[in-house]
Please model this.
Amino acid sequence: MTLTFEDFPPGHFGSFGPRHVTREEMLAFAAEYDPQPMHLDEEAAQRSMLKGLSGSGWHLCSIMMRMMFDGYIGRTASLGSPGVNELRWLAPLRPDDELMLDIDVIEARISRSRPATGIVTFKAVARNAAGQALCEMVSPIIVQRRAAVAEQAG
Model:
């Protein structure tokens, strides 16, 4: 079933995961995209303010996006996103973390310029197995309304 604008009332939408993050994937991502010492070198990481090897925040955002896609965006009548409103890294991603992703709809409104669509703003919070919040992201997506999807199918 395709999710439409009407399927996203404000409130808690769902929780997704767990997603295991390996040391190897953290190192591979960092080597390719964010080769800072705290993401690649145990000794340098120990001396950093993070006090140990940590995954790149950009890696965590990529994992969150995958979890969102697999959890609901992949079956949503989404037309894309105008961007990310807020992004905060709250605690380090560590090797062998088990991530859970909590999704809340913080706003859902019909588009004034394109009334066949709505704008749904989500707050995503990634947590480790201890329940510690690692990252918070607030981001809108443009979603087709049910009538528009039915008209296209019909």
